[in-house]
Design a protein that fits this description.
Elements: E1 2-6, H1 7-17, E2 32-37, E3 41-47, E4 51-58, E5 63-67, E6 69-74, H2 75-84, E7 89-95, E8 98-103, E9 106-111, E10 130-133, H3 134-144, E11 159-165, E12 168-174, E13 178-185, E14 194-199, H4 200-209, E15 216-221, E16 225-234, E17 244-254, E18 273-277, H5 279-290, E19 300-305, E20 308-315, E21 319-326, E22 328-330, E23 334-338, H6 340-348, E24 355-359, E25 366-371, E26 374-378
Antiparallel strand pairs: 1-5, 1-7, 2-3, 2-6, 3-4, 4-17, 7-8, 8-9, 10-15, 11-12, 11-14, 12-13, 13-26, 15-16, 16-17, 18-22, 18-24, 19-20, 19-23, 20-21, 24-25, 25-26
Helix pairs in contact: 1-2, 3-4, 5-6
Length: about 375
């Protein structure tokens, strides 16, 4: 195998693929990157056996294939070396059990192992796939992924539920104490209803490989995997030319098995109290008061009255604090307490101002409206009065 490649294009591809390569694995071959040079492209493949990615730099777009072939190369050494080269062009050449990477006067030689030891990675099949604008997909991920469970517990909560139904695609994430839910219109008439729990690591990878927010990505669900295909396109310089695809990226994530919580039962469908507050101001005041809370007393109390919200918190070791801000409140004077981290996580992702909060009473969940078709439900907590 012998390939000449634009260094920046190669550096970028290595950085993306290296995201999924484990530092240590019981299967040493997956600690490596699989290079495949064909007549039409240089292909880089990485996997941790749960999440996989295939990055193809197409011929004529910064890569020249002098000799086809394959090589299994130590992932981090190759990525770090190319990153630190000071040159425009990199030459990769593999023969026998060595792979040479050369840039200008600098080069390194890496040991390689038999490419046959690398596990087979599926290829994207367009049959049964649907298209979604890349920016829309990334927005749905960003709106929900932060609410998925991180601690050990119910395995199904460690992913995001994706539902295809009723002319929409819906994303839902919860850790049992808060829930983020959003959706976007999608023509699902030709697709059967589908529910799948996608691991957060996979969704983070999918979002990362969406290169052009205005271009469509293809998405497909198989029995046990979600697959996404994205392309980078260069538009012609003058009139009459055709757009040219320079990169193709395929990413795959193994679905999480298990039963996702019945999330609809915790979404409030009625409320006696509603409040609207300027998003940035509420964020600043919450963060200010939360400074006195501790890991043992991670709570802030929100006291609503006519036209005003008072935020209070205290802890034996760190003291107490309070702050006030004007709000548009409808309801009778009432208190409700939340974990400030959960509320701030939602406000950080809020896409509108004012933000709206609805709740029935101090024991009922609070529903924040953070954007169009975007809600965030937080369970209240009990604090000493």
């Amino acid at each position: 195998m012998k390939v000449t490649c634009n260094r920046e294009r190669l550096r970028e591809a290595l950085a993306v693929v290296n995201n999924v390569v484990p530092i240590k694995s019981p299967r040493p071959a997956v600690e490596n990157l699989f290079f495949s040079a064909t007549d039409g492209a240089l292909e880089l493949v990485g996997t941790d056996m749960e999440v996989s990615i295939r990055f193809r730099i197409l011929g004529g777009s910064g890569v020249d294939i002098a000799e086809t072939g394959t090589a299994l190369v130590p992932a981090r050494v190759a990525s770090d070396f190319v990153r630190d080269l000071d040159c425009d062009v990199v030459v990769i050449e593999a023969n026998g059990d060595r792979c040479s990477i050369r840039g200008g006067d600098d080069h390194c030689e890496l040991p390689i192992i038999d490419p046959e030891e690398f596990p087979p990675i599926m290829r994207f099949e367009s049959k049964g796939a649907f298209a979604l604008q890349g920016g829309t997909f990334s927005k749905l991920v960003h709106r929900t992924i932060f609410a998925a469970a991180k601690e050990q517990g119910r395995y199904a909560m460690h992913g995001v539920l994706i539902e295809l139904a009723e002319d929409a695609i819906k994303f839902v994430a919860t850790d049992g104490r808060r829930l983020a839910i959003t959706q976007s219109p999608l023509d699902t008439r030709s697709m059967p209803p589908r529910r799948a729990i996608v691991p957060t690591k996979g969704l983070s990878l999918f979002s990362r490989v969406v290169r052009e927010p205005l271009a469509n990505v293809e998405i497909q669900f198989t029995e046990n995997q979600m697959a996404l295909k994205a392309r980078a396109v260069v538009l012609p310089d003058g009139e009459g030319g055709e757009p040219r695809v320079t990169e193709e990226i395929e990413a795959f994530a193994r679905l999480i098995e298990g039963e996702f919580p019945k999330y609809t039962t915790v979404i409030p469908n009625s409320s006696e109290n509603s409040v609207e507050a300027e998003t940035d101001l509420l964020t600043r005041k919450l963060r200010l008061v939360a400074n006195v809370t501790s890991a043992e007393t991670r709570a802030v109390k929100l006291s609503f009255g006519k036209g005003e919200l008072e935020i209070k918190a205290r802890s034996p070791a760190r003291g107490e604090a309070s702050a006030r801000l004007p709000v548009d409140f409808k309801g009778k004077p009432v208190d409700i307490a939340f974990n400030p981290d959960f509320v701030l996580d939602g406000l950080k992702n809020c896409e509108m101002t004012p933000v709206r909060l609805e709740f029935r009473d101090r024991q009922s969940p609070g529903k924040f409206k953070l954007g169009e078709d975007y809600h965030y439900v937080v369970m209240p907590i009990t604090v000493e009065t």
